[in-house]
Amino acid sequence: MDLAFIAWPRIPPQLSHLLVLEIEMRMVVSPKFPLTQKKGPITQNELRAQAQIIIKDSSSQPTKDQFNVLSGGRHWDVTDFWTKKDIILEGMGWGALPLHVVEEELEQGELVKLEVEGLPQKISLPAYLARKKEGQLGPVAQAFWKEWIGLAPLRLKNTPGEAK
Q1: pTM for the model
Q2: Is the pLDDT of residue 138 over 70?
Q3: Fold classified for 4-163
């Protein structure tokens, strides 16, 4: 890997990275979801009995890191946002998805925002451009990296010497 875009709250220490953007996430469910008939916020205990749809690392060396996972609850693992969204649309579970992925469904009433006591309504997921700290980039990757360094409001998350 020369360069990669990574959307994850923690970046491995062997990578230099630039913050590209913050992805706005929303916890959503289908109106078919069993707990949507309840008035007021849902408790975390009530939600633990329902399947949380989570995206699992499917790489050859997956990490044990989890982002926004309700501990002690039921989980269904998928490998991408689109499968997660389809399962949630069918009322078979709940989860957080990028706002830009579910905005239309929220407007049309196909999905609703999930209100859970003690959990935030809005979640922010940072997205980074990353590269290995060790090793040289090829000329195109190096030019791309330097171009991103120059774009405001991005900031290099390592010492200035590592941006070379």
Answers
A1: 0.76
A2: yes
A3: D-Maltodextrin-Binding Protein; domain 2 (3.40.190)
